[in-house]
Amino acid sequence: MVSGLINANPTVYEKKERRIRDHPSDPTDEYAVEPIDDLEIFDHIRDIKDPEHPYSLEELKVLTEESVELDDKRGHVRVTFTPTVEHCSMATVIGLCLRVKLMRSLPSRYKVDIRVAPGTHATEAAVNKQLNDKERVAAALENPNLVDMVDECLAPSYA
Amino acid sequence: MEPNKSLVQQIESFVDSSTTPAQQIASVNSIASLLKNDSITMEFLVKEMELYLTTTDPILRARGILLLAEVLGHLQQKPLDRATIHTLVGFFSERLADWRALRGALVGCLALVRRKINAGVIIRSDAKMLAQSFLENLQVQSLGLHDRKLSFELLDGLLDRYPETISALGDHVVYGVCEAIEGEKDPQCLMHVFHVVEGLAQIFPDPSGPVANFAEDFFDIIGRYFPIHYTHSEDVDISRDDLSRALMMAFSASPFFEPFAIPLLLEKLSSNLPLAKIDSLKYLSCCTVKYGPERTAKHAEAIWSSLKATLCNFPRDDISSSASDLSNGMDFEENEITEEALGLLQKVASQQNTSFLNLVLEDKDIISLVKSFTAAGSSVSVSPKSKQELCFVGRLFSVLAKASTSSCNMVFDSLFLRLLENLGVAASTSSKDVLVIESNSPCQKLNSGVLYLCIEILGACRELAVASTELPSSFNFIDDAWCQTLVGCSSSLMKALISDLVPISNEMYREIDISSLKVKGLQILATFPGDTAPVSKSLFENIVTTLISIVTNNFNVTALWKASVNALAEIGTFLNDSSYSEKSLSYMSTAVERMIVLISLDDSTMPYSLLLEALSKISASGYTYLSRIAQELQEVMSAKFTKLYVDGDVKIREELVQLLDCYSKNLWSDLLQGTESVPLRLAIDIWDQSEAAMGSNFCVEGELLDATKMALKLAVAVLSEENQLRIVAKAFEVISSNLSFSPNFVPSKLEKLQTSEDTDGFTSKDEWLISLFASVIIALRPKTQIYNIKAVFESLLMAFLKGHMTSAQALGSIFNKMPLKNENMHDSSYFYLDDALTLVLERSLGSCSDHFLSSSSEMYGSDELCPSVAVCAPPQVHCISGLAWIGKGLLMRGHEKLKDITMVFLRCLVEIEALAENRGWSDREEMCPSLAKSAADAFHVLMGDSEDCLNKTFHATARPLYKQRFFSTVMPILLSDVKKTHSPTVRSMLYRAIGHVICNTPLAAVLSEIKKLLPVLLDVISVLSEDILSKDMIYNLLLVLSGLLMYKGGQDIAVENARIIVNCLTGLVSYPHKMLVRETAIQCLVAVSGLPHTRIYPMRLQVLSALSKVLDDPKRNVRQEAVRCRQAWSSIA
Questions:
Q1: CB B37 within 8 A of CB B80
Q2: For the MMS19 C-terminal domain, which residue ranges apply (chain B) (predicted)?
Q3: B172 vs chain A: nearest CA distance in angstroms?
Q4: Buried-most residue among B249, B407, B563, B712 (CB within 10 A)?
């Protein structure tokens, strides 16, 4: 087992101002529908903590607003994240966190795809395969150590 | 000897270390009380204790001395003679050397030093002895925490009470103190340390004294504490602020600290910690004032450069937020650091002479910044960075100009004139004729940055001038150099501001900033104090005229229009507060009168609502303007009414509604402070107009009627009793001659009336008149006696029986305010509240009154009125709703007859179905539910607060806690009825009534009964959630439930009922009709997740499955809460 951090000194970026929605719906209309949009999904995952550092994925630019693609009609969500270093062994943990968080936050009608941004990871294909394999995700969540780790990352920070 | 024996016992019990602390305290108290009662003398006590005070056993001796000391502490008020005090001081100061028994000695000395003056205090020579002993014997830093604290308190007390004595000790004392305080770390001790330093510095003000000599060492000790870093701990009630303030006083206590303090503070100012920065700035402000100008002057340059660095250091994220528009967003990113820095700058600037100002004004960076602004030309696009620089420079100069007259002069000389030149304003025009606008001079575009700076400086000058007028001395700012300069250039400046004020349409959006700035400039010019200088009357008039013309002509440029209206209102307020009669007059004639002319014009181009908005803003600025405007508004109102009768124009109708609304919403609150003439005239006018209109077939209804009612009510409410009477008389006269139904009460006609109880004969004209009349009655004061009350009452009652709600409200008001025994009304002496109520009940319930009232009250001989039970007709729905208002009137004053009315409602709820069946009412399927529903809703009227009547504005009599009282009486009845009933419809109506009562009772009262109520509350919610119309009630009930979950004492009840609470909440999370209900239900579930794990774990799956559906809620807020709640519940596994 390698001791020490994979990326000991990551670059921390500033949080971006939250984008304001173009067409706020009429607050007086009880029955107006505010559809789920990519920004809302991004809000769910932006504050997930990095497994190694006390920073959010947004601050490390693992995720940006552009990482979420949503096809609401077909119920398809795709999240693309960028590990901070190419050989980052935490990529699978980050992916797992994303999956668990979205599983808890999105209605079940969505199919969620999680992948590493092309060309940003040494074992890209393997990671992608692992993250989108239902059985392997389920197996990972049987592992108490992993679940603890994921819960820690998902714990609300109220920052 | 009795006291003797008990005394010995008490002493022994204290000295014995095996007794409990409580016993020890008790023995100290009893000994002290013996001394206070003069049962024993101090001498006697000391003699008794001799053994303990002098024994060689250190533990016993320590206890003995401590006992004496603590007893002494209780005797601060008890007079003791000189010899005793002298002996005691001698004893305790000597004991300071006894390190084994030190605690007692310290406590004793402290008690002696703190003695009250009238009870005999230590004389000076003794104090000196004590201080010497302290300095010689105590090694404070080697003592324990509590002893150190006592030592510092002793030192503090000595410095406080005997400064001369201490100062006589000279160097010795300063040495001693330095030694004692060095390295202290405990916050409580530090508070005393800082105070000791402050006191010491004050008793040695001599420049060759000990503090001056040892200033460096001394400051070395206290300087280390700066900046204070201290996280507040629970058990110590000292905050960081307290400590910081105490240290600041110590820093600034002696001017001899200056060579060491200011460099230290400046160094810390350049650090990155925001807290250190703020503290440094605060300390610097305090120190510069205390150290005096000469000492500060040495550091002027350093202070300026640090300040510049602090102020120029724009935090990066501010750029985006301050990138809003130039006019409003111009205010600097207000944070504490800049605030403090500017405050310091102002203090230094007003204290220092020209050299400091020169330093600032000739600073290279500042000059280059100003140059860059002047060079920028008229380009409007300003980058956020340069905008911030602009703000910075603007604030800087504004602070400097505000600081003092001389600094203002310098700012004018060095900068303002140059800026004016850049704007193309000649600094000294000899011609005063400003009205001539040279048409040939090309209107060059103004540089917005330069304009901004000019206006900032101008604003600062104004503040300086206003401040100087508030001084009591006859000092006049007009003779100051800056003011003379301003007199020279004011007219041309104004010309520059006025020209091109209104943006040309295609450039509108880019020019808006500049226009708003110009308006601000004009406002500043117009509100300069003084009748003639620096802004003359003609200039002033010109400004006001310009603003008015913008308001009347350029209403489509919204921002500019708003700015101008606000500027006009500000000018009005300023003139109203000050005594510049000439300008005030001219404001009246140019602004107010010109606006007034517009309102009476029928076809002004300006939208009516905007005109009214402008007028109400202006009228809010002073009573003189208000009364003039209100007078004119009324004339216009009368004219419009008259016109309306003639041709019934829709446009005029709308305008009238707006006019009346404006009156009710805007003018009314201001009218309260003034005289009654305006509201009186309004009320009389309305009645005159109504009377006049009776001839035509015109009628006021709908929106216009509502607006008229409101305006009339508010107007009458303001009036005094006599005037109210006048209005009532007038109103009664009008209605009695014009109503189509007769207000004359004839008992024999009663039955006939009942049979014709439909809306026949109730024309819309009747409705108009009776509504207005009821409005008058609603707003009366309790003391206003209505002379012909019987006739008034009768007309209202008849209208009420015909289903007119406003009349019911008026009746409720009468019942609420009616005197119980009206002695001075001989003409209708039989007309008591009870009689009136009987009358109302009988008439409104019709033939059923016997049934409804039979058991609740024995006093009605109903046989005569209702001879045959078989013909009993059901009461009307509107009568029930009307009775609710009457009940509310009784409830608020706490009258016992409320019981009868409540019983009527309860019977309607519970027995109506059975009754209908018995009596064979024909249409019972439609009628029963609606009757029951109106009875249930009556509880809402009873308990709720209404804006229409029976509130504070309309002088309702309200008994304290009437809601709580009603809640506690009616709730048990409703609950038992719920238990008894078997019919689901009846139960649902009872639930509705319960819901109304719970919603409108103060939360605290409900929560105290929640144990009984909770199951019912949950049932109510689940029953009501099937009805769309009761969504607001569900929300209010849910708030009660959330109150329970948040309330400390409610946790146990919530735990017991966790299952049913969760069942109810999981149902509500998908309540389709109100988003707030869903959101609140989810928040309640989050609160439930905090209950003990064992109770809620069984519900976990249920909650999670309910929440998984809510994740797809149409509303975003609900989804977000659901995610949060799901997280909370999934983490309790």
A1: no
A2: 624-1087
A3: 54
A4: B712
Kindly state whether A107 is in contact with chain B, defined as any CB-CB distance less than 8 angstroms: yes
For B1013, counting Cβ atoms within 10 Å of its Cβ (0-12 exposed, 13-18 middle, 19+ buried), the class is buried
For residue B627, give both structure tokens: 């009364």
How many helices (H) and strands (E) in chain A? 5, 3
Query: Do A105 and B1112 make contact, defined as CB atoms within 8 angstroms?
Result: no
User: Does the CA dihedral B407-B413-B418-B420 come out positive or negative?
Assistant: positive
List of chain A residues whose C-beta atoms are within 8 Å of the C-beta of residue B317: 14
By C-alpha distance, the chain A residue nearest B1126 is: A104
The answer to whether A24 faces chain B, any CB pair under 8 Å, is: no
ipTM of this complex: 0.90
Answer whether B1100 touches A (CB < 8 Å).
no
Is residue B259 exposed (0-12), middle (13-18) or buried (19+ Cβ within 10 Å)?
middle
Structure token digits, residue B214: 């040892």
Give the pLDDT of residue B333. Answer: 45
User: Where are chain A's structural domains?
Assistant: 38-154
From the CA of A51, how many Å to the nearest CA of chain B? 19
CA-wise closest residue to B769 among B799, B735, B794: B735
**Looking at the predicted structure, is the pLDDT value of residue B654 above 60?**
yes
Fold of the A38-154 domain: GMP Synthetase; Chain A, domain 3 (3.30.300)
Q: Using an 8 Å Cβ cutoff, are B397 and B415 in contact?
A: yes
Nearest residue, CB atoms, A30 vs list B1073, B1109, B1116: B1073
Query: Taking a C-beta distance cutoff of 8 angstroms, is the pair B730, B765 a contact?
Result: no
Going from N- to C-terminal start, the domains of chain B cover 1-128, 139-253, 264-352, 363-557, 1039-1133
Interface probe with B: pick from A36, A43, A150, A151, most Cβ of B within 10 Å: A36
**pLDDT at site A4:** 63
- B829 versus A32: which is more confidently predicted? A32
Sequence-distant (≥ 6) Cβ neighbours of residue B671 within 8 angstroms: B626, B630, B678, B679, B718
Minimum Cα–Cα distance from A15: chain B residue: B317
B294: left (phi over 0), alpha (psi -120 to 50) or beta: alpha
Please answer yes or no on whether B1119 and A32 come within 8 Å at the CB atom.
no
Which H, E and C letters describe B1011-1040, residue by residue?
A: HHHHHHHHHHHHHHCCCHHHHHHHHHHHHH
Which residue, chain included where needed, has tokens 């028994």? B101
Quick check: B964 and B1006 in contact, CB under 8 A?
A: no
A73 in contact with chain B, both atoms CB, cutoff 8 A? no
Would the pLDDT of A15 be above 80? Answer: no
DSSP letter at B666 equals I
Residue A77 parent element (H or E): strand A76-81
Q: How high does pLDDT run on average in chain B?
A: 78
Q: Which amino acid is located at B314 in the chain?
A: F
Q: Which residues of A touch B1123 (CB under 8 A)?
A: 44, 104-105
Residues of B within 8 A of A44 (CB-CB) are 1123
Q: Are B251 and B230 in contact (CB under 8 A)?
A: no
List Cα–Cα distances, B123 to B130, B155, B156, in angstroms: 11, 16, 17
**Listed range (B17-31, B207-221, B647-661) with the worst mean pLDDT:** B647-661
Residue of chain A whose Cα is closest to the Cα of B1072: A31
CA distances from residue B758 to B792, B809, B878, B1043 in whole angstroms, order as listed:
21, 20, 11, 46
Query: Do the Cβ atoms of A14 and B1112 come within 8 Å?
Result: no
Q: Which chain B residues in 1059-1088 lie under 8 Å from chain A, judged by CB atoms?
A: 1073-1075
The residues facing A56 across adjacent strands are A49
Looking at B953-1092, list the stretches that DSSP marks H as alpha helix, in order from N- to C-terminal side.
Answer: 962-980, 984-1000, 1003-1008, 1010-1024, 1031-1046, 1051-1056, 1058-1068, 1075-1088
